[in-house]
Q: What sequence folds into this?
């Protein structure tokens, strides 16, 4: 497949590195021409431009990676699908659920595949955990407890993620949507939503901490915390069934070695039977995700993680933001 990359920052670079042999990037676009040119040079032969409209309309492009700031995600995706292109758009796919409504309609009219980059589903520990869940190894599901956070860096409060006009929100929208998406993947929909937003440390108009209490119609719970004041980068996702517990820790790199622990309750209870899988080395989730996207395109199947998944996650976030604005969160 031939790709365009719109947004040539860190994620755009990761998307380029995820391409398998035979696929190529033919055009790169970024408001900063030097960034687009630098990525085009890495792609060996790609054309660089500052106009994303030229990139998505390029005749040789089959699919578009949309890796912009949040304020442009929906607009670029909409333009791409209207020209018949398939799309991988980075999470959260828009600043709010309303921005996604016309994109969903256009993608369904065009019959194209639009995948949302919730790449955490493609980490091996989470893939194995979902496999164990599907096998019935956990028994009936009870609840999830998730924590995800980092501590930022000098000047973080001046970056675009700290500006709700550009980002759409703060940490709940940034890393929190990964926790929400994973919770939906394991437990399903959450008609009951409560949350609390706080700005404890950073001097910014967006929250640096988001707390969520989500409940399914069957009474299962997800208790989630996303934070920009986690001074040691942390990812922890615990899944509790009546018969066993799964604990995913780390995502590689600064988050520590990715690990899945399976704690199987004995009939007599007491200390559980424990099995641990570790996944050191390179983060391959981006490559595995791209492979799943390409298979869906080739088979003319729906996207593995579609715009309606993003809309559901954004609806939860929007509920908490609306409640906070009204003085209730």
A:
């Amino acid at each position: 497949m031939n790709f365009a990359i719109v947004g040539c920052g860190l994620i755009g670079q990761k998307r380029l590195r995820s391409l398998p042999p035979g696929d190529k990037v033919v055009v790169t676009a970024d408001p900063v021409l030097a960034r687009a040119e630098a990525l085009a040079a890495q792609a060996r032969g790609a054309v660089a431009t500052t106009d994303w409209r030229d990139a998505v309309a390029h005749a040789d492009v089959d699919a578009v990676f949309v890796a912009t700031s949040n304020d442009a995600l929906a607009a670029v995706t909409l333009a791409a699908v209207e020209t018949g292109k398939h799309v991988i758009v980075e999470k959260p796919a828009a600043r709010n659920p309303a921005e996604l409504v016309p994109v969903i309609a256009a993608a369904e009219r065009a019959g194209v595949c639009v995948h949302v980059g919730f790449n955490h589903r493609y980490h091996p520990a989470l893939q194995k955990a979902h496999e164990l869940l599907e096998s019935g190894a956990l028994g009936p599901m009870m609840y999830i407890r998730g924590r995800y956070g980092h501590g930022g860096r000098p000047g973080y409060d001046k970056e675009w993620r700290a500006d709700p006009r550009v980002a759409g929100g703060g940490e709940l929208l940034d890393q929190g949507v990964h926790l929400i998406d994973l919770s939906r993947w394991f437990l399903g929909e959450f008609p009951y939503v409560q949350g609390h937003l706080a700005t404890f440390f950073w001097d910014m108009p967006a929250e640096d901490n988001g707390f969520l209490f989500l409940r399914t119609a069957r009474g299962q719970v997800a208790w989630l915390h996303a934070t920009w004041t986690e001074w040691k980068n942390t990812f922890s996702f615990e899944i509790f069934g009546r018969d066993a517990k799964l604990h995913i820790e780390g995502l590689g790199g600064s988050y520590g070695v990715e690990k899945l622990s399976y704690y199987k309750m004995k009939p007599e209870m007491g200390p559980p039977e424990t099995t641990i899988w570790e996944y050191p080395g390179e983060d391959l989730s981006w490559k595995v995700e791209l492979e799943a996207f390409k298979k869906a395109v080739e088979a003319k199947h729906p996207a593995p993680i579609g715009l309606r998944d993003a809309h559901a996650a954004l609806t939860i976030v929007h509920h908490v933001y609306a409640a906070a604005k009204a003085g209730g969160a």
